[in-house]
Amino acid sequence: MTDKTNALTRRGALKTLGAAASLPLWARYASAQSAEPIKIGFQVHRTGIGAAYGRWYDRTTQAAVAMINEAGGINGRPVEIIAEDDGTDAKRGAEVVEKFATQHNCDIAFGTLFSHVVIGSAPRAGELKIPYFVVSEGHHVASGMLNRYTLQPGITDVKSQVQAMAPFVAENLGKKVTMVFPDFAFGHDHRDYFTAAIEANGGEVLEHIAIPPTETSFTKYFPKIPRDTEVLYHVMVGPAVLTFVKELGEFFGPNGPQMFGFIDSLEAVNIGSPGLEFLEGSYFWEGMPHHAQDDQSEFETIYREKVGVDARGASISDPKDVSTYAHMFGCWETLHVVKAGMEAAGYSGPQDRAALIEAVEAMTDMPESLEHPQGAKVFNGKTHQVFGHQYITQVQDGMLKKVHTTSIEDTLYPDEVDYTTQSF
Amino acid sequence: MIRSLALHLGLVALLFALHFVLPPYHHGNLARVMVLATYAIGYNLLFGYTGLLSLGHALFFAAGMYGMALSVQYLGAAPAPALLLGLVAGLVVAGITGALALRTTGVAFMIVTLMFAQAGYLTILYFGEYTRGDEGFVIQQAQRVLWGLDLSQPTWRYMAAWALFSACLLGSLALIRRPFGRTLIAIRENEERARMLGYDTFAHKWVAVVLSGGISALAGAAYGLLFGYAGASFASVQYSIFPLLWVLLGGAGTILGPFVGTLFMFYLIDLSSGITTAYMLMAGVVLVLLTLFAPQGLIGELRRRVWGWLP
User: Fold this and answer.
1) Cα–Cα dist B202/B265, whole Å
2) Which residues, other chains included, contact A91 with Cβ-Cβ below 8 Å and sequence gap of 6+?
3) Which residues of B are less than 8 Å from A86 in CB distance?
């Protein structure tokens, strides 16, 4: 490789600047080696159980790409999003990744939330050697189940989220906990990680109440809640959550235990909906608080505006359209990590995919910024997983008020894999 | 006889030849379609040839998939014995559910098979500690090397899918030409009369369920092995409906129907999803049109109008 330095004269520089300024926006990209857009295959839940998440992942992604392109794209090339619906289905998800790699000739694949879609798709991404950036919050990446081509640099995983809640719960709400969770993998993760974490903080779980996924009424499970329960930890998903909260309110009346839940249950649901009054005073984990807080950072203010979300976490154009605010920042942050990685690697095409992954693996600190509006993060290149602050909010007069921010250290756990030892 | 053999061998040869000419995307798709078509062949044996409409075949597909995947994951089995264990799991599950479900007929049979499949699905979720439930788990590349052939590589994946599909296609063709297959058709046409002629219709139907379940299980096991993933979604009711749709589209009671139906449906969804997000609606409209204008499916209609000799 030769190092060629062009002599830069004042006149030449001015001429170039003048010419660049007079060009339309699209033509400025032409200064790069190739003006071809960087194609990002966006695997999105348009249909199926994840559709509400998909709709907002899409809006966040479009907003992030618009901002990246306004600022000149990546390495001087515009970014193009090629979206395909995965139907929230593992089989279709894998097919879509194949389509990105072999038909659309995308540079990378990106997106998607539900764990089964990620786990079903990741083997194909690894085989087709296409970097696959997921925004799933599952522990599957850091557990070592996937492969070197799969990374999660924009959202924390369920294991670190859950364990970071235990110190707050034990200190402020109570040490005797009863857990109510859906009887499938997502619920089992909560059961296992939280039980271990609360015990480490001097608390105990009195009872695990697993609810079958087909259940539509919950009254019969409530008598199983021990009378000396101080905290009820709940994490229900799907449409049944409204019934669950309503029936819980009818069961306990005004004298219930403290309540702590994961907002996953109520993403895309207005917390002021009739039937949810019982949640007043209860606590939630939020990846990023839905409601604008008094100390909201300037970055989050811009982020809200760009994505089109109001102070209550709903669409600016339709206040009834509540966002999946606690998760969707992951798309925004992941795309900025991709941009930073491609720039660090001097990415010019699919031959540089391995270099891109190495560049992302080399990342560590990600300070709070417009690129990371949810807060500062630390990326672990070995486990391909990012770690960051978690927020606990309390429902006060129908608003989710932030009452606690965890440290990043609270979310850390020992490495379970070193993907960098795998070959490309 | 000669023409039908030539036609089916021709398809097998064509699929082999396509390996060398297809671009990567369609090459990958066809491998997937062949495995799914094998599932449809299994389904067609029971639905198309024996006249028993099951709404619970996902149970057999998943039994094969999990029989294979769990033995790889927990027993460290190599792919060949794992495939065999998947097949055995499917045969056993089909044997038991068949013996019970065949005590009913018609609509009751549909409901009982549906219930069995739902119970199977919930069982997979219940044992989430081992099956990882709805989330599923990955079968790592190193665990997918069959006799030195890395099934995660496009060539070997395609060849494995092709071998499986060809064997099941030609096997089913041979089966329906034998007296046993003819008896199944007789049962489909008029069970009372078949019984009156001295055939043990229950035993025949039971063997048909077991064979159909076995082929479905083999497809499930192969699917997991070739694409590196096992998950409970493959046991959900959707995956019981799919083979029914594929077979209806392609032509129930025809040997080529399952393949044609699976291929058609795959590309219908793939292409229409590029045009609109309401691709399931488009798929639905096409299904309605086909049901109206080609009620016997694509190959069934071809047989009715042009080639009466098609098996």
Assistant:
1) 34
2) A120, B233, B234
3) none
For A290-329, b/e burial (b = at least 16 CB within 10 A) is bbbbeebeebbeebbebbbbbebbbbeeeeebbbbbbbbb
Length of chain B: 311
Instruction: Give 10-residue mean pLDDT values along chain A (424 residues).
Output: 47 54 48 75 90 91 94 92 91 93 94 91 94 93 93 94 93 93 87 94 93 85 92 81 83 86 84 82 91 92 93 90 92 95 92 94 94 94 95 91 93 94 91
Q: What is the DSSP secondary structure assignment for residue A77, as one 8-state letter? A: B
Query: End-to-end CA distance of chain B, in Å?
Result: 9
Q: Helix and strand tally (H, E) in chain B? A: 14, 4
Q: Assign domain A159-286+391-410 to a CATH class.
A: alpha beta
Homologous superfamily in CATH for domain A12-156+326-388:
Response regulator (3.40.50.2300)
Q: Say which amino acid occupies B143.
A: Q
CB contact under 8 A, A120 and B136: yes
Chosen for mutation from B129, B229, B272, B279 (greatest number of chain A CBs closer than 10 Å) is B229
Residue A116: its chain B contacts at CB < 8 A?
Answer: 134-136, 231-233
Cβ contact (<8 Å) for A185 and B133? yes
In eight-state DSSP terms, residue A170 is I
Q: Residue A179 gets which letter from DSSP?
A: E
Domain boundary assignment for chain B = 2-305
Query: What would the two tokens of residue A49 be?
Result: 């159980």
Q: Does B106 touch chain A (CB under 8 A)?
A: no
For the domain bounded by B2-305, which CATH number is listed? 1.10.3470
Q: Do domains A12-156+326-388 and A159-286+391-410 have the same CATH topology?
A: yes
- Strand A231-234, strand A377-380: pairing: unpaired
Interface of B with A in 132-151 (CB under 8 A): 132-139, 141
Look up the pTM and report it.
0.87
Number of residues written out for chain A? 424
Q: Dump strand ranges (E) for chain B.
A: 137-138, 145-146, 149-150, 229-230
Coil, strand or helix: which one is A97? helix
